[in-house]
TrEMBL record:
Top-rank lineage group of the source organism: Bacteria
UniProt entry tagged with the keyword Kinase: no
Protein name listed in UniProt: DNA-binding protein
GO molecular function: DNA binding
Organism: Caldimonas mangrovi
Domain (PPC): residue spans on this chain: 1-129
CDD domains in the cross-refs: DUF296
Alphabetic keyword roster: DNA-binding
InterPro entries, A to Z: PPC_dom (IPR005175)
């Protein structure tokens, strides 16, 4: 495991920026260890909902957690609204950074995460595989 600290800037899409950082590093599996910051807009899919709800900022990111891969990410966040209410759910694309987002990733170069259909849940679920030694060597 190696750590990858990131600071996202105003206007960046939180989810897409994390996925882009993973691609830049050539990593196929990572976990979010920590994430805090602020958003102008949040797209959060609440438990059991089919589509995300749009929340207008200012919004504070209290926690960010999840998995990242080149085949898709599964991110959850707890967000504090301007009136102090806290909501949590799945982070969808469209969460736009307000002032900053400070995120620490744990990159796992020897592993790859895949998303495959799971008949039991009806969703594309995480499949964890050790990278084949015959494949290209893991990045740095």
């Amino acid at each position: 495991m190696r750590t990858l600290p990131l600071r996202l800037s105003p206007g960046q899409d939180l989810r897409r920026a994390l996925e882009a950082a993973l691609a830049t590093e050539g990593v196929r599996a990572a976990f979010v260890l920590s994430g805090v910051g602020s958003l102008d807009v949040a797209q959060l899919r609440l438990a059991g909902a089919e589509a995300p709800v749009a929340l207008q900022g200012p919004i504070e990111i209290l926690t960010l957690a999840g998995t990242l891969s080149d085949q898709g990410s599964h991110l959850h966040a707890a967000l504090s609204l301007a009136d102090g209410r806290v909501l949590g759910g799945h982070v969808a694309p469209g969460c736009m950074v307000r002032t900053t987002a400070e995120v620490l990733l744990a990159a796992l170069p020897e592993w790859e995460f895949r998303r495959m259909a799971d008949a039991a849940t009806g969703y594309r679920e995480l499949v964890i595989r050790r990278r084949d030694a015959a494949q290209e060597p893991p990045p740095r």
